[in-house]
Automatic annotation (TrEMBL):
GO terms for biological process: lipid biosynthetic process; methylation. Keywords: Lipid metabolism, Methyltransferase, S-adenosyl-L-methionine, Transferase. It holds the Pfam family CMAS. It comes from Catellatospora bangladeshensis. InterPro entries: CFA/CMAS (IPR050723), CMAS (IPR003333), SAM-dependent_MTases_sf (IPR029063). This is Cyclopropane-fatty-acyl-phospholipid synthase. The keyword Methyltransferase applies. The gene is cfa. Belongs to the CFA/CMAS family. It comes from the Bacteria. The keyword DNA-binding does not apply. GO terms for molecular function: methyltransferase activity.
Length: 410
């Protein structure tokens, strides 16, 4: 049976996507803006031997599936691909596509990572962070733009640029934390130092950032020196658990909690609490599940195998409870889900603009991983599969005073 017709038959309902296949078959509207090409029988092996999302990802990353046109549009159509339905339908599809030989698992693409050692030990966490962040600072400069901020931006309006939105994000965090000249800020999981430099430059704050990525720390140190901020800002290659215990006036955690396992959340919040003075505030900014009912980690998903190994997402209710249960009083919370979809669209545009240079820098396979990850993540935020929450907490003093204003000032 024609391969393209079989694949089209797996889609629940009509989609504006055309399919072509290595056997010369085609299906779908001939004038579609997006064409998905099944380039080899190995693509079918990938689809048959892994769950739908992971099989598709392996086939795309390896080049056995190609997409002509907008990848986001293609994924929106393939999101209705029924690969995990009844056994009778799966067996019928297997027969139509070539039979039992499809169940011979092909080699996994070399970009797929499987870490070793105790989950969320310091050594394994360093390896997980290095896999994603120690790729190439030059690549990230192309992808992220001048801000070098690899977390959800905050768009003040629909016309704002990515750089304007990243500035707005850092400034929103600063205002929620109540930063003032002379204060001391700790930024855990600081990336390339964007929040550290913003706090020092815009608020006169003495800021320390820590990251498990050596390349991020090296890039940030150079950027801080070039900006003339070395007297106020510093970034260290260090685990947040190893920061000397001292009383900071404020702590920001922007995009770190996704790397903290559920069992480690109590220790995470306790470690931040003891490093914060009474009356000091914590701003926790992270990707979350839309409820507390989903599992924190999906080990067999594309994003865990290729992008963020050992990543775990939690429902915002679970995070708020963990903050409360381990010393913080939560004072404010907001969901910025739509802002992350916009941010990812901007990063995708940057990647496409620098596609040839990116392939030359990190290799075609890794570049395809990033292209797929950005488009799939954007779809996830658009469809409320994942969310982005900022949660503001405060460490009360011995008498229960928060030092918070009567109404938000940000």
């Amino acid at each position: 049976m024609a391969v393209a017709k079989v694949i089209e038959g797996l889609i629940a309902g009509p989609v504006p996507v055309r399919f072509t296949a290595f056997d010369g078959s085609s299906a779908g509207p001939p004038d579609a803006d997006v064409t998905i090409e099944i380039r080899s029988p190995r693509a079918l092996n990938y689809l048959a031997t892994a769950n739908g999302g992971l099989g598709l990802a392996r086939a795309y990353v390896s080049g056995d599936i190609e997409v002509s046109g907008d990848l986001y549009t293609a994924l929106a159509g393939l999101d209705r691909l029924e690969l995990d339905k009844s056994w009778s339908k799966r067996l019928r599809t297997l027969r139509d596509l070539g039979g039992i030989k499809l169940l011979n698992p092909p080699p996994r693409p070399p970009m797929e990572v499987r870490l070793h050692g105790r989950l969320h030990s310091k050594a394994r966490d360093r390896a997980a962070i290095a896999h994603h962040y120690d790729v190439s600072n030059r690549f990230y400069e192309w992808l992220l733009g001048p801000s070098m901020a690899y977390t959800c931006a905050v768009y003040p309006d629909a016309a704002a640029t990515l750089e304007q939105a990243q500035f707005a994000k850092h400034d929103l965090v600063a205002r929620k934390l109540g930063l003032e000249p002379g204060m001391r800020l700790l930024d855990v999981g600081c990336g390339w130092g964007g929040m550290v430099m913003h706090a020092a430059r815009e608020y006169g704050v003495r800021a320390l950032g820590v990251t498990l990525s050596r390349r991020q720390a090296e890039w940030a140190a150079k950027a801080i020196a070039e900006a003339g901020l070395s007297d106020l800002a510093e970034v260290r290659f260090m685990d947040y658990r190893d920061v000397p215990v001292q009383h900071f006036d404020a702590i920001s955690s922007i995009g770190l909690t996704e790397h903290i396992g559920r069992d480690q959340l109590p220790g995470y919040f306790r470690s931040l609490l003891v490093r914060l003075r009474p009356g000091g505030r914590l701003l926790n900014h992270c990707i979350t599940r839309p409820s507390n009912l989903e599992p924190a980690a999906h080990r067999r998903m594309f994003i865990n195998r290729y992008v963020f190994p050992d990543g775990e997402l939690h429902g915002v209710g679970h995070l708020v409870s963990a903050m409360h249960d381990h010393g913080f009083e939560v004072r404010h919370e907001e969901n910025l889900r739509e802002h992350y979809a916009r941010t990812l669209a901007a990063w995708s545009a940057n990647l496409e603009e620098h596609w040839a240079e990116s392939v030359a820098e990190v290799g075609l396979g890794r570049a395809r991983v990033w292209r797929l990850y950005l488009a799939a993540s954007r779809l996830g935020f658009d469809r409320n599969v994942v969310q982005l929450h900022q949660v503001l907490g405060v460490r009360l003093d011995a008498r229960g005073h928060s030092g918070m204003p009567l109404r938000p000032t940000w």
